[in-house]
Amino acid sequence: MSDEGLPRDRLGLEVLPVEQCWELVSTSAVGRVAFVDAGEPTVLPVTHSVLGREIVFRSASGTKLAAAQMNAAVAFEVDGWDATTQQGWSVLVRGTAETVYDEGEVAELDVRARAPWLDAAADGTWVRIRANEISGRRL
Predict the structure, then answer these.
(1) Domains present along the chain, CATH in parentheses
(2) What is the pLDDT, as a whole number, of residue 90?
């Protein structure tokens, strides 16, 4: 699935439009959130949803939740590929993580957002990533 009209980056990869980036992120159930923990980069998978221009997921106690409680800068990445055709795409979101405690927002997320696949996170705290930037590429 290639769109010949899209601009290309310095390596020849198609640069995806913002709207297509958001569409791709929303169609994937699992993404990876990257943050700094104890001075070291950490990347962990999460089951997520896209609501508006925000990424939301539940997190049990641990490093992801601690980063959100500190309103940490984070990156979020989702990709898809086909090994047979050697084609794929990748979308990167940069933003700020924060916890969601407002009862009304929590109730809305409980209804609208995807439930975590991990049972331990099912009763966890909602985390929201407020996107500052989104970009994507297709090979």
Answers:
(1) 14-81+88-138 (2.30.110.10)
(2) 97
